[in-house]
Amino acid sequence: MEPLLLVEDLAVEIGGRPILENINLEIKPGEVHVLFGPNGSGKSSLLGTIMGFPRYRVVRGKIYFRGEDITGLPVEERAARGIGLAFQRPPALRGVLLGQLLERFKGDGEKARLGARELNLEDFLDREVNIGFSGGETKRSEILQLWVQDPQLALLDEPESGVDVENLALIGRAINYLLERESPPWEGKPLRELRRTRSKGGLIITHTGHILNYVDADVGHVLFQGSIRCSGNPRELFSFIQKVGYSECIRCVNSREVGENG
Amino acid sequence: MAERAWLNLLPPEDRACLSRVGIDLEGERAGTYLQVDQNPLFFAGVEGLDILSLPQAREAYPWVDGYVGRLLPQARPLDPRTPGYFIRVGRGMKIDRPVQVSLIIGREGGRQEVHNVIILEEGASLNLIIGCTSGACVRRGIHLSSTETFVGRRARLHLTMIHHWGPEVEVYPQGATWVEEQGAYMYDYVCLSGARKLVTNPQVLLAGEGGIMRSQTVLVSPPGSSLDVGSQVYLRASGTRAEMVSRALTTGGEVVSRGLLAGEVSGVRGHLECHGLLLTPQGRVLAVPELEAKTSQVELSHEAAVGQVEEEAIEYLLARGFPRQEAVSIIVRGFLNVGRVDLPPALKEEIDRVIRLTAEAH
Fold this sequence. Notes:
The structure holds 2 protein chains of 2 kinds.
Chain A: E1 5-14, E2 17-27, E3 32-36, H1 43-51, E4 57-65, E5 68-69, H2 75-81, E6 83-86, H3 98-104, H4 109-118, H5 135-149, E7 153-157, H6 165-178, H7 191-197, E8 201-205, E9 219-224, E10 227-232, H8 234-244, H9 246-256
Parallel strand pairs in A: 3-8, 3-9, 6-7, 7-8
Antiparallel strand pairs in A: 1-2, 1-4, 4-5, 9-10
Helix pairs in contact in A: 4-5, 5-6, 8-9
Chain B: H1 2-7, H2 12-20, E1 31-36, E2 39-42, E3 49-53, H3 54-60, E4 85-89, E5 99-105, E6 110-120, E7 125-134, E8 140-151, E9 156-164, E10 168-179, E11 184-191, E12 197-200, E13 203-206, E14 212-221, E15 226-229, E16 232-235, E17 241-250, E18 254-263, E19 268-278, E20 284-293, E21 298-308, H4 311-319, H5 324-336, H6 345-361
């Protein structure tokens, strides 16, 4: 099967400073990957590079999306091809109401309405995008926008940071809908059919790992000092990290060669 | 109605100018005042509402004289025949439909000078649209106005002022508004056309307890235009509140966006918001928010920002799949959207035009 996303030997700089080195990553249709790593390890930069923001300069390597080399494509072209990003800290859009923005997406208005209800954001449709939103509200609004945008590959930058326990379940469920892991109640597709037909992929940055309790991820990666140091079963990796910390985890996991993709 | 017949005498291109500043020539208004150059041409009214030219009002009601120059003594006209409008809403009268006023510079190089008085008596309410413009073929002219406004106890005035000027017109409106106990003064000002020079900085005196003032201003300054626009609000009685929001956008011209909140007694609150957006490397925006507290227990704040369209915001929308031009237009439209102002359709089209031009240039 052709990979949804294929990253080959990628090296990236920001303002002349190397930030990512020797990145190899393959996400197949229907797979969800999670990205662990300490602050400043380059997780957000990797997502930003895949999305195509110009401040991330690719100095080596290629990014393929559904077989097409997109390394040189601008952001809007990548979005048009089916890549979407839920921002960690999205900018405020003064005077732009969330509801108005959702209406501009090509999708149907019904989806926005149902999504807003599901994510408990109905009262936010008349609010200016990201102005006065709490951490959790921001994350829910990001997922809602992505849900309406409906990308084939969803890049989620710390969808759970700043979210309280109650809303975490809400966000987890919405991510599952987004990634065709669960069917929304109004569609009611059986899980078996969903498993067979799902084609969407996800790459989720998680700092706390909480999202793993809600989203059944397939592969985990540890990004450390700009490189993916090991990959494997996400829950296993995360429990290592919790026990021994990142640097120890990498050494230990690598020496034991644990994991499917490691 | 005689009103219609008269309006039909206006050249069609001038009628189009009027619709751009919110003047409705077809629909129903509670009253209309129009003045072309120095000629007040029309008045109409419903019960409880007086619309006259000021000289007529001074003749009809001797007490009117006591209001002329009360708030703006230095602007009291020397010539009692100086035209201008007089609008009064009687005690407790709620005028449902809007009243419209239009002051027009009708000929090239024309000079228009007016003195206006608006009085809302206790408990009265009025929605007033004032559209000032120069005629379709007029590039040059001068508009000088002084407006004294009295908002009585528990009265409510919503004033929407829309300007549309020829590129070389100079405009100097001055004004003062007196707001009594529990009175409410809403003031929206829109000028999208620019003007060679436009200077206005009216005062609002919140003189009675619990009086409120809210204003919203939207300015667009094209190349060759210079706008210096603000309001000065004096919170003189306890429980008074003021909230001012201004958005200034330059496509190459100059804008000075001012605002003064002065808390003169305890227990007053005010907030001032002033945002400027530069769409070209030319242009200039100066935001001048001022706060003054003359006693303790005064709660005044401001928020000001000037700059260009943030690349980060554009990228955010690009990542959502919007083409760059649409992303910029979403941001600029949002910037100009201050929410409450109910703009006439012709002005909405004007805003669309400005947004289209700016997005294309980006």
